[in-house]
Structures are given as structure tokens and as C-alpha cells.
Amino acid sequence: MSPIPSSGVSLRPLAQTLAWWAVDRWVQRAFPAVPTLTTQQLADWLSQGKTPVPILLDVRRDDEFAVSHLPEAHRAANLEAALALGLDRDRPIVAYCSVGYRSARLAAQLQGLGYGEVYNLAGSIFKWANEDRSLVSQGQTQTQVHPYSSLWGKLLKPGLAVPLAQGTHGNPPTDDSVS
Which of 11, 30, 88, 100 is the most buried (most CB within 10 A)? Predict the structure, then answer.
């Protein structure tokens, strides 16, 4: 008997589901005090015009941000860059990156400085893009995302990752490997 189901069901969605589960657990264990918003919760918040409107912080590198980002997002790859934006302590902040690790780290740092309402976007821009939500680049609608690396790009639906330069492959982002 074959260990692979013969029903014609693809294992890719199952593998992606398991990978997302592992990523979400990894981020939650690394930053347990950081509250999260789902992509649906953020989309609802933004579309319903609830006030105050959150400040969106994109915690990715310049090359990642240049490919695409959430509309109205500010790039802040680290705490110093976020503070340079003159963040309003009375407005909620939602941080995101590729999958949620770098943004959770920044959210924890902002919490440590007394910013009260700071959230990490669960699944970050990868889940946002996988759900066909709005992305922009230089004021134009965009559909693709920088995959961070060939490994992490596997969490994006086919066709959503921009091609990387040959030889680019990645390890999980850590405090040492990302800014």
C-alpha cells in the first residue's frame, strides 16, 4: 500500500499549512508578550475606517520594501528607524515583515519603551499577499512580494514571489541575520 494518498489531493497545501503552523509557534514562543492581529482583523480595521487608524510599520529591508508593501506603510527596519518616524504614542501600531519574526521583535522593543498598543501582524506580508490583499510599490498596485530568500519564499503562493538573484537562499531570520 502506498503511503501517498491516491485521491489526487495535493500535499502542497498540507505542507504549507504545517509550515505556517511552525512559523506561528516559533514567533509566539520567541515573543510571547506581543499581541497579534490576523490579516483579516487588520483588513477589517482598515476597511471599516475605525479610528484611530493604526500606524503600519514595515520592518523589512529596503530591497524587500521596494518590491511591495501594504498601502500607507512606513519602512522601519529597526527600532532606531521606527523612533525616527516620531511615532504617536496615542495611535495603535501594527508591525509586519515577511512572516512575523522581525516585526514581533520590533513590537516587543516598542512595548519596552512604553508604546501601549503595538501589534504584530500574524503571517505578515506573506499571508496578506497569499490572501490577495492590496499591495503597492511607488504608488502603483503590486501583486508580488520579495520572498526574503528562496526557502522562505515557499510560504508564498506560486507566482507571488519576485525572482531572486541566483545563489540567494536563506536561513530563518534571527537577531543576527536581520536588521
Answer: 100
DSSP 74-126: EE-SSHHHHHHTT--TTS-EEEE-SSSHHHHHHHHHHHHTT--SEEEETTHHH
Residue pair 72/55 in contact (Cβ under 8 Å)? The answer is no
The tens digit of pLDDT for each residue in 153-174 reads: 999 999 999 998 754 444 445 4
Mean pLDDT across 135-162:
95
The single residue listed with the C-alpha cell 489526487 is: 8
Q: Which pTM value belongs to this model?
A: 0.86
Dihedral angle sign, alpha carbons of residues 82, 83, 86, 92: positive
Question: Per CATH, the architecture of 34-155 is what?
Answer: 3-Layer(aba) Sandwich (3.40)
